[in-house]
Write a structure and sequence with these properties.
Blueprint: H1 2-7, H2 10-21, E1 26-27, H3 32-40, E2 70-71, E3 74-75
Parallel strand pairs: 1-3
Antiparallel strand pairs: 2-3
Length: 76
């Protein structure tokens, strides 16, 4: 998926880490929460949702049936 290409981008990874570290908003949809945010540690200690096929990769799956999840500065 396109999220795989995004996860391989060092520029995007650096930007997302900086955004998360400074408390600014980070958003991801479809497969990106699982494929992009999880490996960066951005979802550690947070709840999120993703495209159903990728929800098993989320660290906390308590909100996977929700269409939108806002947890702190992360929107999925």
């Amino acid at each position: 998926p396109g999220a795989t290409n995004l996860s391989e981008s060092q520029a995007l990874s650096a930007l997302l880490k900086a955004q998360a570290a400074s408390g600014r908003l980070v958003g991801a949809i479809c497969a990106a929460p699982a494929i992009v945010l999880v490996p960066l540690g951005i979802l550690d200690g947070k709840v999120a949702t993703a495209y159903p096929k990728f929800c098993d990769k989320l660290p906390d799956q308590s909100q996977i049936d929700s269409r939108v999840v806002i947890c702190g500065n992360v929107v999925t």
